[in-house]
Predict the structure.
Amino acid sequence: MSRTDHRNPNVSGLRPRSKLVHGGTRRSSFDETCEALYQTSGFVYGSAEEAEHAFANDGTRHVYGRFRNPTTAMFEDRLAEYEGAGWACATASGMAAVHGALMSGLRAGDRVVAPRSLFISCYWIVKELCPRFGIEAVFVDGTDLSAWEEALSRPAKAVFLETPSNPGLEVVDLAAVCDLAHKAGAVVVVDNAFATPVLQRPFEFGADVVIYSATKHIDGQGRCLGGVILAKDAKYGAEVIHPFLRHTGPTLSPFNAWLLLKGMETLELRVQAQSAAAFQVAQFLETHPKVERVLYPLLASHPQHDLVRKQMTGGGNMLSIFLKGGKAEAFNTLNGLRMVMISNNLGDSKSLVTHPATTTHCKLTDEEKASAKILPGLLRLSVGLEDPQDIVEDLDRALAEA
């Protein structure tokens, strides 16, 4: 007797970690173990009638690589299963996901509300791009609920936020902000890249759309670019976001989708190990004489520690380290590292560190940097999969030499 539906396994009863391995799988007639890589841009039809039926867009046939690809579809469906989303669509990068999730639902005359503490490219889309199309951009202190209340006392079309934020690790009260946003008529779009779906589930707190830079933890090995948009409501995803992506073309390549599929298999294991190591590193740095302060969500000293405990199941692998000696001390520390590498990427299996004020956020004005707490002595550390004690010793040595 053959196993039931081994080519399209049902994962509805499986636990989350198992869904990361088996979700979305569609085996071909060759019954392969590893997900197939369909490196094709187009598809053929047996007749004109078949082609006509395929373009009815009922989802039974793939018609063009820009619209969807079997490998990409497996990646989308796997993450949707794990996240609890009704709809998902992969994009060529995380910023393509941010752009598509926001601009697909905004029109001239709309208002979008966002916290000031955002990744620089996200900030640019809200601050610079939206107003070009007649969309009002309103910025608030993301940690101040009264500021959210004031901004959302008038109708708004979208709320966009990161929590924890990049690079300041500010945490937004998801449940409270989602409630305020919905009363104002806004769709809530959450960039969950730092927390990952392993440690935070924005849909459970009222978010409507969740986005990821899959380049980061989902790949986790610095191999490829990718992004994904997930919508709680399948109808909203299909009718609002999908037409925008279909016609503007920020398409994820099949090869990158295949890499991301393989990355998902170990996502929980990597993120949990990195989080445990990051907590150990944060505890060390918190008592170091050359460190003014360190921000890590699980430290009791984090300003929103209680909120973190409510909406995250772990602290993640990202740290914000404020050194007492400013830029000079920061640069000397970076140059003294032997194992931890200087890089503006994050979520990698290797530990990476950068100086945001002169790299990722260098285009901000001094006033904007100060408002987002991107100070000259700030280092952003992405903790990898090395032995935590080796990371600690490398940092300790570099700080001592600086």
Notes: The CA atoms of residues 35 and 389 lie 36 Å apart.
